[in-house]
Design goal:
alpha+beta, Immunoglobulin-like, 2 domains, 13 helices, elongated, disordered N terminus
């Protein structure tokens, strides 16, 4: 935990320095050069095929002189041609009309006949989603909240089971340790992309036509997961544990993750990689944790021939969240005719299916294989080490 806190502090401090000294903010006027910033309001549009919507282009202050704005986009079949706009000296905003032609996604950029009066106008984009049905888009949002709540609540059944039994025997400590480090990595990734302007600028420079997908609910979920996991770990220090402890295998894995984090921090401080690349290292380690964290608990249930002490409520809620998450992916893909978003991203889809498969395994263990095994064999510390 000390290493994680150190990394957070250094990340925030260094990113602040970069933001303050090396990166000129897009929202501030450059008084020396008289540059003006432009922005779309809203930055994202969702419309149905055949429908029209307006988007406003707002300037940070009135234009110095007149110009013509023209628009570029890489998928001209998604929207109808957007007409060039004449903007006159002294104006602070203008409006464009967007018409959906075919379902899909497109990012619309701006250029001007006098780009020199604007600051990085070529980095400003309007992200448009053209859907078959806005009702389906709303339904997708509802599905998103369902799996968000299911995953958020899924931590509490295990805490309740520990409290009612006054024991954590049957709950694998490796699972808890891996869960904590995984959600810590996830929190760092989300915090960096959501709160730190310098890292956001790096992202837009690397992926100019993409929106940052991290939302505030992602940040809240990750931090909540860390807090609840820490609380569950505190329960292991209070309640009966029967000699259970984190295995040496898990300790080695945690040390490897810590070493990677420390080396990455040194490399980024030496300016060999960017802070964004460093955050992506955290995301890759989170993926690795997701792949392995369920294995110790499944093996422990198998060795004990019992699931007592391991909350089935946690499993059912996690299964619900995972199922609705994949369901939402298919709804979005159908509504926007964007099937590559599923099959073109095998990591996200595969991890979702992988988690569901483990949830099914846990349900089979609980309801079929060991449903009559309410008692369990005592496991001492030496035996616990051999579970892994």
């Amino acid at each position: 935990m000390l290493l994680c806190k150190l990394i957070v502090c250094m990340l925030m401090r260094a990113a602040y320095v970069v933001s303050a000294e090396d990166v000129r903010p897009l929202n501030d006027n450059d008084d020396d050069e008289g540059l003006i910033t432009a922005s779309f309001q809203p930055r994202k549009l969702v419309l149905e095929v055949g429908s029209l919507q307006n988007a406003t282009i707002k300037f940070s202050r009135p234009l110095n002189y007149s110009c013509i704005l023209f628009f570029n986009y890489d998928k001209d079949y998604v929207v109808d041609d957007i007409t060039n706009v004449s903007v006159y000296s002294g104006e602070e905003r203008t409006v464009i009309r967007v018409s959906g032609r075919h379902a899909g996604y497109v990012s619309v950029g701006i250029n001007s006949t006098v780009n020199e009066q604007f600051y990085k106008i070529d980095k400003v984009f309007l992200h448009i989603t053209v859907a078959h049905s806005q009702a389906l888009d709303v339904f997708s949002d509802v599905i998103g909240w369902i799996y968000f709540l299911a995953w958020s609540i899924s931590f509490y059944p295990q805490i309740y089971v520990n409290w009612t039994r006054k024991s954590v025997v049957g709950l694998n400590f490796d699972f808890l340790a891996l869960n904590l480090i995984g959600f810590t990595f996830y929190s760092l990734f989300n915090i960096g992309l959501y709160f730190i302007p310098a890292i956001q600028d790096e992202y837009h420079d690397r992926y100019p036509r993409q929106m940052i997908s991290v939302e505030i609910n992602d940040v809240v979920f990750a931090l909540h997961a860390v807090a609840v996991t820490i609380f569950c770990i505190l329960q292991t220090c209070i309640y009966e544990r029967n000699g259970q402890r984190v295995s040496w295998t898990c300790r080695v894995i945690l040390c490897v993750f810590g070493l990677i984090s420390l080396i990455g921090l040194i490399v980024v401080v030496l300016h060999k990689i960017t802070w964004l690349s460093y955050l992506y290292i955290f995301s890759y380690m989170k993926l690795c944790v997701t792949l392995i964290k369920y294995v110790p608990q499944a093996m422990m249930n198998f060795r004990r021939k019992s699931t007592e002490g391991w909350s089935i409520g946690n499993v059912l809620l996690d299964f619900t969240g995972g199922t609705f998450s994949i369901f939402q992916m298919f709804i979005l893909a159908f509504n926007t005719s964007d099937w590559p978003s599923i099959f073109g991203n095998p990591t996200k889809f595969g991890l979702g299916v992988f988690s569901i498969m483990f949830d099914i395994l846990f349900m089979i263990q609980h309801y079929i294989l060991y449903r009559h095994n309410s008692s369990y064999n005592e496991i001492n510390a030496d035996q616990s080490e051999h579970l892994h």
